Amino acid sequence: MTSYRVLSHQSSDGPRAGIVVGDTVYDAALLTARPSCATVLGLLNDWAGTKPVLEDAVSSAEGKFGKRLRDVKILPPILYPSAIYCAGANYSDHVANMARIQNIPNEPDPHELGLKPWHFLKAPRCVVATGDEVELTCEKLDWEAELGCVIGTQARNVPLEKALDYVAFYTIGNDLSARDLTARPHIAFQSPFKYDWIGQKVFDGACPMGPWLVPAGEIADPQLLAIKLWVNGVLKQDSNTSKMIFTAAEQIAHLSSRITLYPGDVVLTGTPSGVGAERGEFLKRGDQVKITIEKIGDLETKIV
């Protein structure tokens, strides 16, 4: 099967879904002869029917009209997910480092305590594209490189062994976090009302995502991918998805036991060690952030 990627890009008719083959971008609706594929969400809403048509169209794309990838304005890959679920404290190396910094004992594997994956939400309109600028509006803006799973089939009460069957694509996310806005001032630390999840996690530009979507069939095992992040060319995060505490499959199965997952929903699966909070180092205006995940690509962001 011919390798391809899916993205959203700006056209004279507004945002459109594009299919990337090599260094050429084809209009998804024209390539597949399916008007519903004009947007990535439209393409995903009937993924079972669209997938074989898309794969056939990709195999015969050569010679058809397309644009050079470098000439295309790339947009956030999904405009917009109905939900972005973000896993917290889900890499063993990151959890160990944070425990050391806070001078607290490293907790046992949550599986041993009978615990389930733990998620919070980002607002869909937080998503920005690769190459976009994010405005610095806090004093302690932190980076978090994450593998993203894009749901392709409506999922409810999914068994663990079938959870990855519901993933259509994988992508890269950066769960930008305003660390200085995590806790509400003048509220006791033991208070259940101390923490401000909106302030810390939901702001304009809080979720760079992309650069595109990679078909799930091209990722043999999402738990065996190198994941790295650089700030101004300096390596900060260097890990592997094998260090997740709860696997992508466990997260999807658990989330689907709580709420129905819909095509286009994104599950960001947590971040490894090397975030700024571990070293008291945070992003500044002018900083360039680059994330690479094996077999997916590069996601780049500038802080302004």
Tell me what the structure shows.
The mean pLDDT is 96. Helix content is 16%, strand content 31%. The N and C termini lie far apart (41 Å). It is α+β, with helices and mostly antiparallel strands. A seven-stranded mixed beta sheet has the order 7-6-17-11-12-14-8. Strands 4-3-2-1-5 form a five-stranded antiparallel beta sheet. The protein has helices at 28-32, 40-45, 47-59, 92-101, 197-201, 248-258, and strands spanning 5-11, 14-21, 24-27, 67-68, 73-75, 84-87, 119-122, 127-128, 133-134, 141-142, 145-151, 167-174, 177-178, 207-215, 226-231, 234-240, 266-268, 288-293, 297-303.
- How far is it from the N-terminal to the C-terminal residue, by CA? 41 Å
Overall structural domain count: 2
What is the beta-strand fraction?
Answer: 25-35%
Question: Number of DSSP helices?
Answer: 6
Rounded to the nearest angstrom, the radius of gyration is 19 Å
User: What is the mean predicted local confidence, pLDDT?
Assistant: 96
